[in-house]
Amino acid sequence: MRLLDFDNFREIGSTMKKNKLRTFLTGFSVAWGIFMLIFLLAAGNGLRNGIAYNFNSWSANMVEVWGRYTNLPWQGLPTNRRIRFTEDVIDFIKRNNPEVDLISPNNSHTDTLAFNREYLTASLRGVYPDYAKINIKKILSGNGRFINDIDLRDKRKVIVLHPKMSKVLFRDSIQPLGQFIKVGNLMYQVIGIYEDDNTDDFPPAYVPFSTLKALMDGGEYVNDIDMTVLGVNTEAESKAFAERLRGHLARHLRFDPDDENAIGMYDMGQEFRMWQGLNNGIAMFIWVIGIGTLMAGIVGVSNIMLITVRERTREFGIRKAIGAKPSSILKMIIIESVLVTAVFGYVGMVTGIGLSELINYVMEMSQTESAAGIGGNTSVFRNPTVDLGIAISATCVLIVAGVLAGYFPARKAVKISAIEAMREE
Length: 425
Hints:
Layout lengths: L5 H13 L1 H35 L7 E6 L17 E2 L1 H9 L3 E16 L2 E10 L3 H4 L14 H6 L3 E4 L1 H8 L9 E4 L2 E8 L11 E4 H7 L5 E2 L1 E6 L5 H19 L9 E5 H44 L1 H9 L4 H46 L16 H27 L3 H6 L2
Parallel strand pairs: 4-8, 5-7
Antiparallel strand pairs: 1-10, 1-11, 2-9, 3-4, 3-6, 3-10, 6-7
């Protein structure tokens, strides 16, 4: 006997038309469960991707330190004493802290940049070559290079610009690489155009730290120091490293090791782990809600199928009385269950995926406008889409649930004798 034939589908279609409300409620339970699961997972992915995107501008293991003012006296030295870093602190940190991998000072100086008749006011940052890796400053192929060790050693007057600065100074008709621009009263050669996610109108330009140090008043001091650390993966390890670093700097710069106000310290790793923990919690919460919604759909399908079989017990008795085999009745119930759950499950899946893709498209357009300087940064929520495999798996789960919900009560019903079944009300 064939599993599927036209008469089966015609009979199932006729049954659905007679029970439109029941069919709609069954299908709605399936579609809503799938839709909500997909939409919630897409929202969770969007939030997770947004958080990850925000951390792309820095290394996840970055630590920044800078000098502040003392709160405690130390060996005859007074309180409220300013702690200032000099370049030798960088070598000291490297020697005494084996966890430190990349390291760079970071000094700032505001000046006017000019090329022919075009000019702008921007911040110059004096840095080491490691700065680009620590703070994720990318230079694409064909856009030159970042500062290197030779620039630093020879105090070269070279500069790395952001594309926004390049467009203002050179317009679109001039290739900026190799050009000389006036910075204050000196000429600097453009050696690279870097890319990052900075949304400021004019992001900073980068020059060798040694060059800026020679030109600035008070250039022997370092504003702050950026570094990356290896093997510091937990909160306890981060706290232990911070205490060791503060102790070493206290010995070198002469302040109380317990004086937490003497130096400022920012640990990107701690913030990253905090957001990661929050992200995992959100993902778990969304999965719980999504699975709960899916289970509600399964329960809804099961209850409606139970009622459906109960209502059709008399019909099954009549079928058996005119010669229908129990297997044919079971087959009809299973096909109906599969058909309803598959069709409405597909509707829910397509609706959920379609809505998430529409939101993703709108957000991509907003982010494009933001990158062009129209509006603010919209990177908190990005790419809110869901894996197609998850959507299909959830639909299959509901189809199986619908089949089982129809099969077991139908099997019980067809075991009843035809006379007893026809007496059912």
